[in-house]
Design a protein that fits this description.
With 125 residues, the protein is mainly beta. The protein is built from 1 helix and 9 strands. The strands form 3 sheets. A 4-stranded antiparallel β-sheet has the order 3-4-5-6, with helices on one face. Strands 7-8-9 form a 3-stranded antiparallel β-sheet, with no helix packed on it. It has a two-stranded antiparallel sheet with strand order 1-2. The structure holds zinc ion.
Amino acid sequence: MTHPDDDPEMISFELICPECGVSNPENAEYCLVCERDLRNTLLFLEDDSFDLEITTDSLIEYRKNFWGTSRTGKVIKYPLSEISNLEFGSPITRFKFDFNGKRHVIPLKNENMKSLKQVLNKILD
Ligand SMILES: [Zn+2]
């Protein structure tokens, strides 16, 4: 007996749509559900107080409400070319960077920190 989930040939649905939260195939150009353009989305992370999207040129923060159940509508876009002095995991799960002459600190879950570090190091190099 084989279970379909065990099939190594299965397409991985790892790209989460920043708009509607649905998982899409890794190479999807547009979201299967809401048709959002996913071509520039490199990484999408859901965290407690915000969602983070990394595109080819920006870091985008979607603020969530206190309970983390829905977005407040506040969206902050940091162009990657304007952030500097990146620091990962100091003290433990804080991502820090300089933007607009100010030090920004973003608390992240440990697993999200790892993914973010990996992707950002790749594109900023
Ligand atoms: Zn979508």
